[in-house]
Amino acid sequence: MHTIIACIDGSASTGAISLAGAWASQRLEQPLTLLHALEKPPAPPAADLSGTIGLGSREQLLEELTALDERREKVALEHGKHLLQAAETTAREAGAANVTQRQRHGDLVGTLADLEADTRLVILGRQGEDHAAEAHAIGSHLESIVRRIHRPILVTLQAFRPPRSFMIAFDGSATAQKALNSVAGSPLLAGLPCHLVSVGPLSEEQQRQVTRAHTALMEADFQVTVATLEGEVQGALNRYHREQQVDLMVMGAWGHSRIRQFFVGSNTTRMLSQAEMTLLLLR
Amino acid sequence: MLDTLKQDWLGNVRGDLLAGLVVALALIPEAIAFSIIAGVDPKVGLYASFCIAVVIAFTGGRPGMISAATGAMALLMITLVKEHGLEYLLAATVLTGVLQILAGYLKLGSLMRFVSRSVVTGFVNALAILIFMAQLPELTGVTWHVYAMTAGGLGIIYGFPWLPVVGRLIPSPLVCILALTAVALLLGLDIRTVGDMGDLPDTLPVFLWPDVPLTLETLSIIFPYAAALAVVGLLESMMTATIIDDLTDTESDKNRECKGQGIANIGSGLLGGMAGCAMIGQSVINVKSGGRGRLSCFTAGLLLLIMVVFLDDWISQIPMAALVAVMIMVSIGTFSWDSLRNLKSHPLSSSIVMVSTVVVVVSTHNLALGVLVGVLLAALFFANKISRFMLIQSADESDGHRIYTVFGQVFFATADGFIAGFDFKEALERVTIDVTGAHFWDITSVSALDKVVIKFRREGADVEVIGMNTASATIVDRFGVHDKPDASDPLLGGH
Questions:
Q1: Fewest CB atoms less than 10 Å from the CB: which of A65, A215, B253, B289?
Q2: Cβ contact A53–B281 (<8 Å)
């Protein structure tokens, strides 16, 4: 059974994630799973730098570390249960019928990878708990999840409302083409007004691709507006979003090689941090 | 991938840097002490510790574990160094690395599952005893000053952490070394110092191919040593990795660790260092000091080299008594004191395995032999225990028909009991042997079954074996004779 996984962590986006989960669950007619990963906290700062080991040091150390983990995990477990309960209430109020809660130990990336086979869509907040204060920081996991998980990923900001229209950032690349195909084939956005947006100047080849994309979307019964913007990519897309009141942007994630991403970053990374609307990333 | 890498290196920067510093301070006396055990200049152990710690930080499979020059390895090199000299030790170190990488690719790390808990405990205890015994030469035939200083040093090491605030901030082995050096210098005591034991590093290590003839003769000299070093190094590393796994509640990649140890040893040999492996005591100190990532081992190695190269004049002034005190601490901390308490509560067989491992190691100074004996004993005890799970019931049907029902494990240790479970003297027309609840493990058990069937047949009974499960059937099919058409009685033919 495929399910929509909404990742809850108690950050400011939690409400938005639950709402987005409820929305996606209704659009896709698939059950919603609220997931809380109990990550192993970083090692406690050592209070003891004496560098000595004596009688039974190893046993004693094991005992101490176990007791520490135990206390922390018990609290985290309880905290997570409350978060999940609140998120479930929100999701049900927003109309989701089939909601389950899941709590797993381990880091979020690994947990999602374990569940990947049964996943239809992953919903994440842009920032987790750790980055609440930084306006454009992207969460510590977001990038690695987008790289690792080969499923569509919906990234919400701190507020979410069901999209009334959406835009596709189209650059003619293979990933953009694939993204376009999956949008055309999925019920998630079906029936919503669509803006097919590229940032120019466009070569003739790109122009032809846009035309083809337009036709493909029309054939999938979308009502399409085509726009070509000028200027720097992020700014232009954000401006367009403000002017046209678009609620969601679809983009193919990471078109070029991993090595290059590592050294120069990418449009996707910049978009993740700068976007002012909900993002749907497609691999 | 990138994410794990970042987590391994930068997940715990502050803790790792601090722990790395604490470990580096404790590594220096150990590296010097182990060089002395092996019979080489202290710089050989110090270069080795630097190189192994830094390389394993990148290549190891267990973040948070400390590897460097170790006592277990040093003990295996003594005769090689004595008979053939340093260059052969360097060559053996490189070969050790090659063998360990091979072991990593052959996934021999998984063989650790045959090493039982008792053997591990025995290994650890034996190691602690050997480290302690290695200190005895420094404590025999010396003036009372040395005893007083060693006792004072131990007093500082274990007493200093009890001081409020500073006690837990400054590594007490460092305090011990500083205090004893100061005392020795101030009083002008004529006692042995590190400088008396051989050269200390005064430069960064340089890359050198070991100066040995590349002949088969060289190989025949170094191979036995390299093989033992590779085995002991991997054993201690795997055991330490398990200990760190338990302490930190995380997983490690044992086969990657094997390869990592190999690469580190090759590097060490080429930089003029001796072979090393993971260190139980230091790794515990590292975790205790808050080290969890790869950065702590890297920091420890780097700081060690920096301190040694720049402070070599000072280090040569350190009295051996201070090192002995630190090493006694390491040996006490390595010993598993729980195992003594558990002697009473654990089953006798596991206590025998543990104690035999210790005895063999301490008498041969070879940890590999001890583990071998321990593993063999543990296997024998296990075979003996499992052999109690075999039972034959017999039920009399009418008309000279008897049904034997066999339960449990039939293998070499139970084969005799299996045969003895049948009464061949009884005059029967028909015998049914029901083995539904039994498992035939090896060819000894198969031939035992053959023997039973053929014996009954010779007494004039019709024999039927029913309920062979698939696993048993495979081994019986391959090796058994009674169910093959031309089997009259080859087994008993000569009787």
A1: A215
A2: yes
